[in-house]
Amino acid sequence: MEKVICDGTTICYAEQGKGEALILLHGYCGSSSYWDEVVPELARHYRCIVPDLRGHGKTDAPMGTYTIDQMGNDVLQLMDELNVDKAILLGHSMGGYIALSIAQRHPERLKAFGLIHSTAYPDSEEGKEKRLRAVSAIQTDGIVSFVDGLVPGLFAPEHVERLSAKVSRVKEIGYQTALQGAAGAALAMRERPDRRDVLSATPLPVLLVAGEKDPVIPPERTFTSDKPHIVQAVIAGAGHMSMYEAPEQLIQVISQFMNGLPKA
CA angle at residue 68 from 63 to 227, to 5 degrees? Predict the structure, then answer.
């Protein structure tokens, strides 16, 4: 992986392909490796930039409080370091929250953006309590125990056994998350605002992708706006992890969206 230093924090990323910049952001307790089955095909046509987000993978996990906006600023600084003026930005789950933050605060840096198994809703009160319990579990029992409990629930139920090797791979990626990173990101997600208005108000093209059987974020929480600039897609049979459960379908959806964007 490559690395850059942004405000004293080392951000690690992978890059593959040439052409228009496509940035892919992973979800919670993930890393750039989440996109391993998707990037090779997309990199045939685009410059794919895939970072490890703050606290995850090989990127630094600074002490202190994290915010979604701060994690978005890391991505913007990475773009600056790589001389990317505008990009198409797609975020999975937590990565989608970061994409929304950037779309709200710095839309001039984006050509388009998308949420993949993500939502513009904030956490519910129940969800906020679950974040606190997650932080407690991480601090008490460690990252391995937490990830072992987290990952199977990200897949559609029928895929947990059938795709057991991929479930194991996602766990292995999760084990690399620093304790501070996992706790900091959980609290950042807990405090994120309602950004449904970003989807309805943005003039940018938007892609919304939902898994038909997503146990974490069901389609109705992803499809919160149906304005003309928004493309909606459901991945049949997939849970929260279509990049593992149905990578070919996800590649097709992303490619069709990218092909429909205005040419530079």
Answer: 170
**C-beta separation of 156 from 238 below 8 A:** yes
**209, β-bridge pairs:** 116, 233
- The arithmetic mean of pLDDT across residues 177-186, rounded, is 97
**pLDDT of amino acid 264:** 63
32-36, 62-66, 145-149: which has the minimum mean pLDDT?
Answer: 62-66
Measured CA to CA, the distance from residue 242 to residue 256 in angstroms comes to 16
**What burial letters (b/e) apply to 213-228, b meaning 16+ CB within 10 Å?**
bbebbbbeebbbbeee
CA separation, residue 189 to residues 71, 83, 193 (Å)? 11, 29, 9
CA atoms lying within 13 Å on the CB side of residue 26: 31
Whether 183 and 66 have beta carbons less than 8 Å apart is answered as: no
- φ, ψ at 32 (rounded to 5°): -60, -25
Averaged pLDDT of the chain: 97
CB-based burial, 144-183: b 16+ in 10 Å, e otherwise: eebbeebbbebbbeebbeebeebbebbbebbebbbebbbb
What pLDDT does residue 75 have? 97
**Each residue of 67-90: pLDDT tens digit?**
999 999 999 999 999 999 999 999
Average pLDDT on 118-130 reads: 97
Q: Which parts of the chain are beta strand (E)?
A: 2-6, 9-16, 21-25, 47-51, 87-92, 110-116, 206-211, 230-235
Alpha carbons 229 and 204: distance in angstroms, whole number = 7
